[in-house]
Structures are given as C-alpha cells and as structure tokens.
Design a protein that fits this description.
The chain has 106 residues and is of the alpha+beta class. It contains three helices and six strands, in the order E-E-H-H-E-H-E-E-E. It has helices spanning 21-31, 44-49, 76-79; strands spanning 2-4, 17-19, 56-63, 83-87, 91-93, 96-104. A hairpin with a 2-residue loop joins strand 5 (91-93) and strand 6. The relative contact order is 0.16.
C-alpha cells in the first residue's frame, strides 16, 4: 500500500509506504515487474496526477444528474485510448442505476 502525501513519514505497518508523487514513481518502478497490482484510489487531483501511467481503469458509472464540484478526469475522449473489456449488468440503488466498467491498454 502506497499512500501519497505531501508530508513524508515512516510507517509502522509492514507493506505500507507514505511518499510524494515522486516517491511513488520510484516505488512503482521497483514494483513494476512484480505480480503486484497498484490501485490509485483518490480524488480528482490524485487521478489526474497519473493520467499517463494507467494501464487498467475501473469505473463505477452512475446514471443521473448529480450535483458536485469535483469531476472525474476520465472523460469519453480520454477513454478512447483504452479498450472497454468488461461491463457489468446494470444495478440499482435507490433512485440511481449504475454499472461497473473496466478499460485496458497496453
């Protein structure tokens, strides 16, 4: 687990690393040829930092008009670089329907 932060600190938990974006790139290169997968879970700013490195994108697509001040950087134009390889059946919770999508590129 790599936790991106502006404040460097040591972790007391084995397998957890706190680092900057630059530190993540270094740690990511160390893990590049391992069988471990790296998931970036964050907000708009965090996703935007890594737009050039994603090989797989998992998206929950929610249908409907939702008010907010933060938006996904994964626009339709951006996703054209990828192939949609998986799409779930539509699911429903309350007033919203949603589906899970997976996109991949080489």
């Amino acid at each position: 687990n790599i936790i991106l932060t502006r404040e460097q600190k040591e972790s007391e938990i084995e397998g957890v690393y706190f680092c900057s974006v630059e530190g993540w790139v270094k740690k990511g290169k160390e893990l590049e040829h391992s069988e471990k997968r790296i998931f970036i879970i964050g907000g708009e700013e965090m996703y935007g930092e890594f737009l050039d490195v994603y090989t797989t994108i998992y998206i929950t697509k929610i249908e409907g008009e939702i008010e907010g001040d933060t938006y996904s950087p994964f626009s339709s134009a951006y996703l054209e670089r990828y192939e949609k390889v998986e799409e779930s059946e539509e699911k429903r919770t309350g007033n919203y329907s949603y589906r899970f999508l997976r996109y991949e590129r080489e």
